[in-house]
Amino acid sequence: MTAARPEIAGARRVVVKVGSSSLTTLPGGLDAERLEALVDVLGAVRAAGREAVLVSSGAIAAGLAPLQLTGRPRDLATAQAAASVGQLRLVQTYADAFAKHGITVGQVLLTADDLTRRSHYRNARQTVERLLALGVLPIVNENDTVATDEIRFGDNDRLAALVAHVARAEALVLLSDVDGVYDGDPRSGPAQLVDTVHGEADLAHVTLGSASRNGVGTGGMATKVEAAFIAAHAGVPVVVTSTAQAAAALAGEQVGTLFTPLGRRPSARQFWLRYASRPRGRLLIDDGAVRALRERSASLLAAGITGLAGDFLADDPVELVGPDGVVVARGLVAYDAREMPALLGRKTGDLPPEYRREVVHRDEMVLVGRRSRP
Fold it and tell me: Which residues pair with residue 318 across a beta bridge?
């Protein structure tokens, strides 16, 4: 039987993300039966000769019952304590379940800082690649025991999209307790499942509601769509569906919502700059520099810079912002912030020899084109 979605069925390496709402309940914490059902699906994927990476939420939720907490903690310290207890239970339950399929698992705990720093990003890629080469199924989660509000992903959907690129995956499946993207809220009235999304315009008039209904998750349908577009722009097809339909989705059946690839797979550096880097500052540029960047893919020279913000160092990522407040590009700056005021608006030939190189070289830059946040 021919798969309706051959790009998913034929993917030799897949990333599967599952949310807390699919694995846990508030009264009982971790639901072993639900977890084992997902493991059975991934065990079949491995038995078919495919590779899988699992991005799993649930550490905090799994720690609620052992700590006799009745809801997701609102303060950071208690949330980290719940994650510390729950992560052990979560991974041990996974390890026992996968062992029944003869599969060894490895835990990969990441913070946003691990992917926003380029050297850490490379290390994460090497670790995942080596685990897969050794026949290990990596289980990835945000390291909630140490992540702070300032350095966290906030949900595992975006993390999964980044991991799909890190792992060089050929498909991404985002699972929750909702069976796809609808053109309205099916809980409040008639709504149609969106079968395929070819670009942002397909969802321009869709209001995205929350996907979590039981109070233990943090992600919603809006975060899944955002993550799906990140992966799609990286050349990775994505299916958003329910955990109950995981097997069908991975077999390429027409379930959930398919996001088709929106371009060629970018280089690791380009992808990191666009989606994973954390800007340390901004360079304000004039209209002439904006045109040079957009139309000629030129490097940014000091002559086109009108101002700066932030306390960045050389080789830090910065945003390049036009006069209208739109972020034109993101790139690695060649100078410290303290060196920049003396360079602003000056022609390269008028600068001392040690300052005549590009401020942001085109090979260290990626065009963005979105409105700047205040």
Answer: 331
